[in-house]
């Protein structure tokens, strides 16, 4: 069932999604194939550093990042831009 959901997600949304999309996970069950497919659609897989460190296919994938990396390098800069633009206060 999981693969069906992943395939549906990528088929329905992957080709129309702009860069800067993330999918969060707390498990180490994503296959190398699905990680590569996500990379092809410019989708980042975000997960706990401990799982990434203990999962070789996560370590070697350029589109798998930790929650800390996501917060520090993606979300925090976006929050600053949104504040400056008056989108959030």
Question: How would you sum up this structure, described in words?
Answer:
The chain has 89 residues and is of the alpha/beta class. The protein has one domain (2-14, 21-84). Helices cover 54% and strands 13% of the residues. It is built from 5 helices and 3 strands. Strands 1-2-3 form a 3-stranded parallel beta sheet. Helix 2 (32-40) links the parallel strand 1 and strand 2 (43-47). The radius of gyration is 14 Å and the shape is elongated. Residues 14-18 have low confidence and may be disordered.
List the helices and strands and how they pair.
Elements: H1 2-13, E1 21-24, H2 32-40, E2 43-47, H3 49-53, H4 56-59, E3 64-66, H5 67-84
Parallel strand pairs: 1-2, 2-3
Give the count of structural domains: 1
Apparent shape: elongated
Low-confidence residue ranges: 14-18
Output mean pLDDT: 83
Tally of DSSP β-strands: 3
Q: What is the C-alpha radius of gyration, as a whole number of Å?
A: 14 Å
The order of strands across the largest sheet is: 1-2-3
- Major sheet: 3 strands, parallel
Sheet-strand content, in percent, reads 5-15%
Count of helical regions: 5
